[in-house]
Amino acid sequence: MHLPELSAVELRRLIGNRQISPVELMEACIERIEKINPAINAICATDFDGARAGAKQAEAAVMRGDTLGLLHGLPLGVKDLQDTKGLLTTYGNIGLRGNIPKTDNSLITRLRAAGAIVTAKTNVPDMGAGANSRNPVWGATGNPFNPTLNAGGSSGGSAAALATDMFPICTGSDTGGSLRIPAALCGIVGMRPSPGMVPNDARPLGWSVISVLGPMGRTVADTAMLFAASTGSDPFDPLAFPVDASTIWPIKQLDLSKLRVGFTEDFGVCIVDQEMRRTFRKKVAAIAPLVASCEPIDLQLGEADRAFDILRAESFVAAFAETWKNKPENLGPNIRANMEISASITLADRAWAHLEQTRVCKKFAQAFEQYDLILSPVTPVTPFPWTELYATHVDGKAMKNYYQWLALTYVVTLATNPTISLPCGTDEHGMPFGLQISGRLYSDGNLLAAAHAIEQAFAGNKEMQRPLPDLNALKTAHPELKSIVTHPPVYSGDENVVGMKTAV
């Protein structure tokens, strides 16, 4: 097995034992990126020179016998919505195609301190709006199982890069499913943590629980290790939650036979294709014999769609009102759609939405008095062509906007409970299927332990384990993925500026 295909946990162990060098690992990952990325376009700006220098420093620290961080020597892919000092960060937006941050996002600061080596940025939709990672700066990211199909979003670049072993770990973020959906479509693990577990100094609405940062990995253990390194204090995030990282990593051992599980195909409010319902039922049937109880659950969530419409619009006004007023041409169609929704929202609507979200949160809390986990699908449809901006129809019903097809994930966003997308075999089209596993609020460590136990229980079971893309089928470049680029990155005049180039 090649180095990039080893788990992050195993790679970190080998580095700590001086069995491999961070330099050796970095070169292997860069080689993998250069070989595979032309087929899926997951990577945008790169800093290979800086990454190589960082790997040499990491190697020297190992040889000196220094105390090593949890992620020491591991190459890191960073979602292009998160600022990286000196490395082009475009947010996939034409107005930011020359943006080079002077400081890191606070998450990246913590991950660097834990020893991770920032290597490249991963592709996103324009300003992170939508679940199809395509934008006018870098183009589209193709699904590793079929590059003509959607890789999901907004963390689609991270998910596709992980699925093809370009990186052992990547960062993500999640509002309505931005971590979970690409994880499900690409067959990797993505976790939306409880609010504040991963502090974020860049959230415009400091007290909003809608958007969170979270980890992505190829296994639950890799994801947990990255998550533990992501936690910490942050005086610039009022929601920063004081968490003991030892409750997250190492993962606790858990007896599946004692778990009480509830499951739902649609939360009573989501539109889901019949084929995805059938696939979900098969996954639940395989899990049921392993746990203490496994039964359907009716949460009676009311008007979750309308509540999310309003809360999402509120957050978009906070983030984009000035640009909407002064440079609307810089905003993509998805963002404009949100801004148009916001124009008709009243103060009474906002109050109602917050009350409705509180009611949803309490419904979940009541359910978790009876159950340890709640299972659901992550997506209502199999991956569709990336040329389609979003799923316009689900189960024969027209979607009212570009994000309604994300309802299975944004319902859990409203509840704020921690939730994981666990790769669980394939659907009826042979594409990855993601199982959404939700747990009790601020019991993130227990959720990880449960997901890890399920993952281990089905190791070797083709119907239930993580599917792998055929890397041999990804040796051919797909230049059409960049065909939507209308405004390529511009140069600032400083040829040494990191990342001022097109994707690999």
Structural key phrases:
Amidase signature (AS) enzymes; 13 helices; single chain; 17 strands; two-stranded antiparallel ribbon; alpha+beta; 504 residues; 11-stranded mixed β-sheet; globular
Low-confidence stretches: 487-497, 500-504
Supply the helix-strand structural class. alpha+beta
**What is the name of the CATH class?**
Alpha Beta
Biggest sheet features: 11 strands, mixed
Tell me the helix content. 25-40%
N-to-C SSE series?
HHEHEHEEEEEHEHEEHEHEHHHEEEHEEH
**CATH homology superfamily name:** Amidase signature (AS) domain
What's the mean pLDDT score? Answer: 94
CATH topology category name: Amidase signature (AS) enzymes
Overview of the molecule:
The chain has 504 residues and is an alpha+beta fold. It has a single domain (8-482), classed as Amidase signature (AS) enzymes. The chain is 34% helix and 15% strand. It contains 13 helices and 17 strands. It has helices at residues 8-16, 22-40, 48-64, 106-113, 156-163, 180-186, 220-230, 274-287, 304-326, 333-342, 347-367, 407-415, 444-457, and strands at 43-46, 75-79, 117-122, 134-135, 139-140, 142-143, 146-150, 169-174, 189-192, 212-217, 260-263, 293-296, 373-377, 393-394, 397-398, 419-426, 432-438. α2 (22-40) runs antiparallel to α3, α9 (304-326) crosses α10 (333-342) and α9 packs across α12 (407-415). The longest helix is centred in the middle third of the chain and has 23 residues, at 304-326. The radius of gyration is 21 Å and the shape is globular. The two termini are 24 Å apart.
